[in-house]
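[Meeting: bench + compute handoff]

Bench side (C.D.) handed over the final construct sequence. Compute side (W.E.) agreed to return the predicted structure before the next meeting so the bench team could plan truncations. Sequence as handed over:
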Amino acid sequence: MHTVFSQYLLCRDPHPAEELKDARTAGFEGIEFCSPVMRGYLSRGASLADFAAALEASGLEPEGTGALRLVPGGASEEARAELYDAADFSELLAQKTGSLLCSLEPYICKDDDELALYPEGAVADDVKNALLSLMSGRPCLRLSLCPDADPKSLVRGVAKAAEIIALCAPRRVWLTADTGLLGPEALKELELIPKGALALIRLGPDEEFNAAFLQKAAALGFDGPVATSSALAGSGERAQTLSEAHELIKKALVAAGA
């Protein structure tokens, strides 16, 4: 397993190109882009070509893009248009940087009335169709579901993600497991994920759960990228935040014997 800097961590920092050097200095080996961060960076006149050159110079391996909000097929035209626009941008990032994995966080309903619009039995097919539609015409993207234990999430936990991944077989959709968004039941449910379909692990603030999750993942054959949870965000100086995040991941890897 290897350590990955997630741009979620510094989502308020407007200097992604400078982050590359600091992340490498902190000891990270890879990077997961946060789509809104990169879009904001480029909207201020930065060049994606220059960023790609800086990425190559940093030696950080591009491990994917996150923060895309997966909406169901019955969502509003505006919400679906936002998702397709975000997917187009992730395809562009993939082409220019090699960050092929695109992690999608599921739709979270605002209240119980909204949740009732999506019967549980229909969710898996609805999400599957949304994923297959997103992949159409975007050959560079590898889509990855990032389930959430929130009771109002349409992909509530690893077991539901496993069901959807199986519907998208053979190997069209992967899993991003964010321990900051999951409960302890995820340890057992991880066995339901097809071998090789776990693409990325993000670690939350619970050190004991992080270590147990990595141990389980290693036992199932995972030896890939490990980042910090999208639920975590640094509040201090950039170099210190990066150092602390790298230490959190390394400590979990050591505790897990990975």
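W.E. noted at the follow-up: The two ends are 7 Å apart (CA to CA). C.D. will use this when planning the next construct.
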